């Protein structure tokens, strides 16, 4: 059955892989599943046909036959549960890998998003200078805890899993802030994730969209 995901027609990050379709592309590449992409404009995302797929008018969505999914956690879990390579077979190890998926999205991503939003969207607010250090501190707290847990291991719990896929994806959002480099073990962890051939294919595919869409200089 054909898998179709949606992605930005014109990604605000200029194709640096930060839009969340990259996570889904990465999972599909790890699972060796071919897929098609439906590109949507910002306007189309808020119109009825896309809202029927995604109630919040966002990307990515995932269509496979009659099945329509939204939320990257649910999509990556769906892919990981059905194909080899992203979740361990053994029950307890599988449950722990799923725990890391939730940890990435529920515990690590929120303060990172808060920081990204504080930097990008609140630059002109009078309280920015006071608020930013507080937000950065919340991010550092999580990174320190995560770095301590990762230690010198390559991945969070044994072999690479969908937990690592989501955690690396979430941490990548921090790279431009410089904060990730304060935690060399995490910075190296992210580089390991990016070096996976499946990630490289996913990254190149979403970058190609941006390159194709960009008007000539
Ligand atoms: N929790 C959702 C977040 C989805 C999300 O924020 N998507 C962004 C792109 S990375 C988007 O569509 N932004 C445009 C908008 O919200 O209008 C998920 O993980 O799928």
Task: Describe the fold and architecture.
The protein has 217 residues and is of the alpha+beta class. 56% of the residues lie in helices and 9% in strands. The protein has 9 helices and 4 strands. A 4-stranded mixed β-sheet has the order 2-1-3-4. The longest helix has 31 residues. The radius of gyration is 18 Å and the shape is globular. The protein binds glutathione (GSH). The site of glutathione has 8 residues, from loops.
Secondary structure: elements and pairs:
Blueprint: E1 3-8, H1 21-30, E2 36-40, H2 42-45, H3 48-51, E3 61-64, E4 67-70, H4 72-82, H5 91-121, H6 128-150, H7 162-172, H8 184-194, H9 197-213
Parallel strand pairs: 1-2
Antiparallel strand pairs: 1-3, 3-4
Bound molecules: glutathione (GSH).
The helix/strand series, from N terminus to C terminus, equals EHEHHEEHHHHHH
Instruction: Provide the β-strand percentage band.
Output: 5-15%
Question: What's the quaternary structure here?
Answer: single chain
Helix/strand-derived category reads: alpha+beta
Bound molecules: glutathione
* Strand count: 4
From the alpha-carbon coordinates, what is the Rg to the nearest angstrom? 18 Å
Uncertain spans, ≥5 residues at pLDDT below 50?
A: none
Mean pLDDT: 95
Helix content: 55-70%
């Amino acid at each position: 059955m054909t898998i179709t995901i949606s992605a930005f027609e014109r990604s605000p990050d200029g194709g640096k892989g930060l839009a969340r379709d990259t996570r889904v592309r990465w999972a599909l590449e790890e699972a060796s599943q071919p897929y098609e992409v439906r590109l949507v404009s910002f306007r189309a995302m808020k119109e009825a046909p896309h809202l029927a797929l995604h109630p919040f008018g966002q990307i990515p969505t995932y269509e496979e036959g009659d099945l329509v999914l939204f939320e990257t956690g649910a999509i990556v879990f769906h892919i990981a549960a059905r194909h080899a390579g992203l979740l361990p077979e053994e029950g307890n190890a599988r449950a722990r890998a799923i725990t890391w998926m939730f940890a990435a999205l529920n515990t690590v991503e929120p303060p990172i998003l808060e920081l990204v939003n504080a930097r990008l969207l609140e630059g002109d607010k009078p309280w920015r200078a006071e608020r930013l250090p507080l937000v950065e501190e919340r991010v550092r707290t999580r990174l320190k805890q995560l770095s301590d847990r990762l230690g010198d291991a390559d991945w969070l719990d044994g072999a690479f899993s969908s937990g690592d896929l989501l955690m690396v994806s979430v941490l990548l959002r921090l790279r431009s802030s410089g904060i990730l480099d304060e935690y060399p073990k995490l910075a190296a962890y992210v580089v390991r994730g990016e070096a996976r051939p499946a990630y490289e294919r996913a990254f190149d595919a979403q970058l190609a969209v941006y390159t194709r869409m960009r008007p000539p200089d």
